[in-house]
Amino acid sequence: MVDSRSVPGENSAEFAQALRDLRAARLRPEVRLTEVPAPTRIAPQAVALTAEVVVAGALDEGDELASGRFVLLYDPSAPEPWGGVWRAVTFTRAEFDPELANDPMLGAVGWSWLLDALGRREATFVAEGGTVTRVVSESFAALADRNAAVEMEIRASWTPTGPNVGVHLQAWADLLCTIAGLPPLPEGVVSLPRQRR
Q1: Tens digit of pLDDT for each residue in 163-194?
Q2: Which residues are CB-neighbours of 170 under 8 A, at least 6 positions away?
Q3: DSSP state at residue 76
Q4: Sequence-ordered list of residues with C-beta below 8 angstroms from that of 73, at least 6 positions apart, any chain
Q5: CA angle at 171 for the pair 72 and 197, rounded to the nearest 5°
Q6: What does the pLDDT look like over 49-107, one tens digit per residue?
Q7: Which of 40, 92, 129, 150 has the fewest Cβ atoms within 10 Å of its own Cβ atom?
Q8: Contact 68/176 with Cβ under 8 angstroms?
């Protein structure tokens, strides 16, 4: 899952421990992680993962419900805006029912999902910030037979302060499942297959 070879330069002991924490993070079976090249100019060390939430056990395992990106940055100089040596930078996206496009609470609800996910995992953090965007796509002329589509995008970053950065990946994966419409699962419970909404 997480490979330190993609990180330029020599890994510090603290960053190497973070990579072990990320590797040990247990995620729901619907979440498919892929390591991608990490940004090289933002911080001395970084790791980046993309994720998709797919329908578990369905005939079409490629039926994507949500997708996103999780980047963990490490800078031992602790940049002032971060308030620490770590920075989690995330992006999450999923399609919603078009009826939700005009819901004035959609943004606040999306942000609360992130904070709730971090709280459930007891992932301590500071200096959080982000945006929740809704994108409404309507088709016309030759494409008029397509239904309107609404996407929610949550862009967020925060500074992990606890000893285990793996819980931050778990919390972000929980957010990804929430935005995909999957119900929360207690530890050790396996989800049953369901049809795409």
Answers
A1: 899 999 999 999 999 999 998 766 655 555 44
A2: 25, 26, 27, 121, 123
A3: T
A4: 39, 42, 43, 45, 46, 86, 87, 88, 89
A5: 115
A6: 999 999 866 545 557 899 999 999 999 999 999 999 999 999 999 998 777 777 888 88
A7: 129
A8: yes
In the chain, where the domains are located: 4-179
Beta bridge pairs of residue 35: 49
| pTM over the 0.70 mark | yes
User: Could you identify the residue written with the tokens 């993609």?
Assistant: 6
Please provide residue 69's backbone torsions phi and psi, each rounded to the nearest 5 degrees: -140, 140
| Closest of 177, 157, 133 to residue 33, by C-alpha | 177
Tokens of 98: 């078009």
Cβ atoms 121, 109 nearer than 8 A: no
Q: List the one residue out of 48, 37, 134, 35 whose CA is nearest residue 89.
A: 48
Alpha-carbon torsion, ordered 66, 153, 162, 119, to 10 deg:
-80
**pLDDT value of residue 9:** 45
Q: How many CA atoms lie within 13 A of 131 on its CB side?
A: 4
**Nearest alpha-carbon partner for 176 in 81, 56, 54:** 54
Q: What percent of the chain has pLDDT over 90?
A: 64
